[in-house]
Records
---
Amino acid sequence: MRKRTRILSVLLCTAMTAALAGCGGKSGGDAKKDEKGSDGKIKLTFSTSVYVEEPHQKAIDALLAAYNEKNPNVTIEILGAGYDGYWDNITTEILANNESDMIQVYPENISTYQAIREGGTFLDLSEYMDDGLKEKLVGQDMCQVDGETLAISSYAWGTTGIFYRKSLLKEAGVDPESIHTQEDFREACAKFGGGGKYATGVVSGTHAFTVSEWSRLIARPVSGGLYFPNGESGPYTAENVNVNSPENVWAAQWWQDFLLKDKAAKLVPDKKDTREMFWNGEIPFCMDGPWFVGMSKERDEALMGDIGIMPQFDIVYEGETYRPNPTNYPLVTMISKNCAHPDEAYAFLEWMTTDEAQAIIADCGMIPSNTDYSTSDEYIENHELEYAIVDYMQNNYEELVADPNIAQLGEISQIMLDAAQKMFSEQAADVKTEMDNAQKQIEEVMSRE
């Protein structure tokens, strides 16, 4: 999903250059002048961070071809950049009033970009969407900001499970069906550690995974929220910050012990290192999402018979059992207030929710957003491992918890990343001290006017 890189042939040199050349926005948030090509067709631009990844490029190209066949009067140009540079580009473009007509992000990013422009950057889609459609789209409830529907979840989503190598578990006498709690998982991992060997890989460094892997597996299930309690819900105030709650401190200590005392996981700088170790048979476990299925097939089709998947385990804390609530990763799309053709833009995004389009999207490696399709016999038959994650979401997991959709997210995430780097590295900083420090810093951020 995030982070395989390939240069796409049709990508312009930079997103900023592309936006300046193609959007022609006016200042003050006014709609752009009518954009039509010399052939009289309506021209729309669509920015996404995932088009540099081959499975997404293939799916998006197929979507455009199918849509253009039905709507020959509309031309849609794909713009964007790789994941690391994409987000700064969006900021630059919005500040210059040259953003794309349609911008694809994750829900937790909506508020940040909406707040850049006074009066809001994006259209309220409430008047376009009916309630029946909203109920079918995974992650659509995360697109609400201050009572407005600022995006549509019409592409695809993913969340995580734990992939395992069947042969390695069998050799070690580990039954994956017996792994129900974090301590079951810890015991299973102990059979693979020692002598420079590990049970899994864990990202430790500047990447956001340094926080999110620990948060998804251990912290949020027991605390309800790393930043704010009750599923990262408001009020988003200094008084409601949840970072150094007893549950989060306990979870951080458990994770530090798992990494540095048990030495169950190899600390790696990037998720790709964990994946390589898994594919090479060096580790038996890899926490990942549905996109990992396609990645594994691309790596070596012969591996697929040796790969299984299980849900994330429950967390037992002070005698209580808490079910997993891993982050949901839907890609959602907003329409700029500068878009000269919002009706046509929305028509395309809504068409993406149809069975015809969702069948095309299924090949991107994520799970199509419309639950009518992702639970259909056709999808289950053709995407067995990916569908297991749909099943986990419905039967094994609590409501999935994402980062809070607030403008301060970037700043508070960096504070938490700084703390995690100290706690979950060989530095092994004192957990309570670092969580208290992070709490104080985030309170200060949330206290600003």
Note: Confidence is low (pLDDT under 50) at residues 1-31.
---
Amino acid sequence: MKKFKILSLLLSLILLLGVMSPAAYALDEPALESAQAVVLLDMDSGRILYEKNMDEQRSPASLTKIMTVLLAIEALERGEVSLDEMVTAQDDCLAGLDTDSSTSDIRPGEIISYRDLLYCAMVHSANEACNIIAHRVSGSVSAFVDLMNRRASELGCVNTHFSDPNGLSNENHYTTAYEMMLMTREALKHALFAEICNTRSYEMGATNLSAPRAFSNSNALISTDSMYGSSYYYEPASGVKTGYTRLAGYCLVSTAEKDDMHLLAVVMGCDGYYLTGIEEYQNFSDTITLYNWAFNGFAYRTAVSSAGTVTRVHVDLASEEDANVNLRPQSDVELLLPKDLDLSEVELVPSVFEDMLVAPINAGTVLGKAEIFIDGESYGKVNLVNTAQVELSKTEFMQRRIHQTLKNPWIIVLIVVILVLGVGYLVLVLRYRAQRRRYLRRKRELAARRAARERAAAESTMSAESTQRFAAFVDEELKNRQSRGPQGGGEKSGK
């Protein structure tokens, strides 16, 4: 009993967690009848809205003709052939065709325009028309098949191999729903291809072997005169190609447009009358189910609003009040999403251009990107911009410039050299001044000595002159006395 209680509690807990955990996609899967491999593509974004066994290798039957006509149109665009060129059906143009193969009753030796061959292949699904196109483009069917495989590889197809240009099944002729989608997207880039595959009926002119022929498109989604009846007509649909063999089952590649949605659907391996005896051709009914599922369940919604702040960043050299800046999406982002998706599941993961976060910055400058994730799946990126002008702080700028300048090793070397030269110059100036003072002091000392010598010499000269004058005076007096002496003496002695 205790075990049952524990089990009940565990189950209740699991259910509770399941209810509480958010689910990004609550949309139920489309209720398909029998399609074994499926791709439903949003052509605008390239996003796959639904898939089933999309990488499973399967026989494509006449879906092969999408690649055949793509290559035929590319040859036309290269100027290797013209639409109005008349082409003669080669002798082996019916090789490999079963008695019940889809044909336009073209016979060997019949001369038919290149334009008519393209319409026969795509609109009427004529197998012999594909052989004739292959022979005209590449010189032989085998060479054209090689070209088909090379072109498929160029488009990224790694699970595709063609053995013929028309899709008559064999074990070595296969592709996948995903790679069929890749080939169709490429083909639809060519306006002529889109025009041909969306033609509801076509009339060929008379040839050298046949009266005029008219036929309807085998795609019952776009043609009420299709061999499959009028009950599958689907107004939003256009193009592209049907396919059927017992090995491949019923296949269909088509597009549809409604409510601004552009969808492409690939269904392969469906049931139908010639395969299982049922009255319904489920390549058409399953395709309509896919389209209705998408048109009813999806809509373009604003997943990202330009009004919301995604992150806040710091801007260098900005004033203090402008240094922290809000980044928001540059524009609203509209995504094709389930109508019941909770938009709170949308997650934005920002990455900022760090080298651009330097003032000044004009408002609206792209400063980063934010990747959009929903339920862990990337939905692309949106630019992030600043909401306001960011002004340059002159103080911050000068400080940064000085700091950056001082970090430059050559500037440091230059400053050291200037300092060394400055110190050297100062030393020389001080030395010069000291030597000048010594020189002036010595000069003054020499001048003083010279003056002293001159004074002494002057004094000595004056003393010598005085002595000479005195000696001359004495001599003069002596002479005078001598001249007076005898007379005076004679008179005195005579008394």
Note: The first strand starts at residue 37 and ends at 42.
